[in-house]
Amino acid sequence: MGNTGQVIHDPGYSINVYPCVSVQKGHSITIPCTFTADGRNTFSNSSGYWRRMPLYPEYIVATNDKSSDVKKQNFYLMGNPDTGDCTLTITDARREDEGRYFFKFVERKDKTVKYFYKKAITYVAVTGEEYISGYSIDVDSCISVQEGLCVTIPCTFTADGRNTFSNSHGYWRRTPYESDYIVATNDKSSDVKKPNFYLTGNPDTGDCTLTITDAGREDNGSYYFRFEGSKESPVKYHYVREKTTTITVTDLSEEPVISDLGTVTAGIDKTVTCSLPGNCSATSFVFQWKKSDVSGIWKTSPTITFTPSLDDHQKTITCEITNSKGKTTKKTILLDVYESKFTIGLLIGGTIIAIAILFFGIIFFVRRNKKKSDLGEPSILTRTPPKKIKVEEKEEEIYENVSAVRPKDGTHYPMKAIDEPEENIYANS
Description:
The structure is a single chain. By secondary structure, the protein is mainly β. The chain has 4 domains: 5-127, Immunoglobulin-like; 136-250, Immunoglobulins (Immunoglobulin-like, Sandwich); 257-338, Immunoglobulins (Immunoglobulin-like, Sandwich), CATH 2.60.40.10; 347-380, no CATH class. The protein contains 3 helices and 30 strands. The protein has helices at 341-374, 391-400, 422-425; strands spanning 5-10, 13-17, 20-24, 29-31, 33-36, 46-52, 60-63, 75-77, 88-90, 99-107, 113-127, 136-139, 142-146, 151-153, 155-158, 169-174, 182-185, 197-199, 210-212, 221-228, 236-238, 245-250, 257-258, 264-265, 270-275, 286-291, 303-306, 316-322, 328-334, 337-338. Strands 13, 16, 17, 20, 21 and 22 form a 6-stranded mixed β-sheet that branches. A 5-stranded mixed β-sheet has the order 3-11-10-6-7, with no helix packed on it. A 3-stranded antiparallel β-sheet has the order 1-2-5, with no helix packed on it. The radius of gyration is 48 Å and the shape is elongated.
């Protein structure tokens, strides 16, 4: 069915619906669809209309408005517009049902709110018919690609019951049928209308693969393949009746792809690449990197190299890509920065050395004191502090045994200083 996606038309008006669906002839298909109008998805007495493109006011294919003339009896509006549901069902699909359709909403008879969701076109492709035996093609009917990105559409075919040829040419053309509107070919003599379309398959091997780069809104449309054998070969065929491929270009919304950072180590350069989704090689994009601790733009190339520090731990870096239309998409990653093994080794080594020095120092100290103890010397661990001698008590002890002899007449004899020279002591002998 392709990829569903929300298309916002104006503030408060949006729709979610597949841009392209395919259904086999004679089968049925239901296309889910939801919408908002005037910022709401609940209404009263509202009407919904599925209409065909080009914009013909009277060409309504499905509605819940019983007063309207419906052009297709096998198209049904199954959703209830009062609940923001625009689901469409197609039964017994026929080749004439193939085409482009859009949804219109009207609230109440007084038409308080009405809106055409013409930006969200749904292409219905009907498959399963083979017109001429021996001529077949296998390619997707519906392809969606985001604006500015690229897509490769696998394609194989048979012609005249074969898929091997010599010197053949293949042509991708746009519908409605225009013989000179070639968008991609391997025929160098042909004028190509779209320089971003490429026939990447080799028609000589039954390969009609188409690649589109830098997709733009102008690439929206339906395309078919034509095959021509060598100049001598009468085999020529265009597969417009068997299968057409509808390209729908949608808004850019998919995130960029950022390469795996691996282990981020402080002080060691790290290279990281930001690329477009889907391995696309478009060149019309502008790349910008932003860092949470850096104001403004940090770097401006798809691949960058930086030297992380421990201060970058838990910081974010963001890659933004902007297409030629000014649409931007981005992706952010968180940095987990680790210390380098060298730094950790130095810290661990230094710690071990410090512990070893402390350990052996304690052992030396204990052994030294034990040796002193064994020799009877007091050690720092066993030595007791000396007793304090009170000066007053000592003075009393000094004079305690000295006889206090004094003459009765009270005469005082001064004591000789003990530090007088010896000759003075024996002077009167």
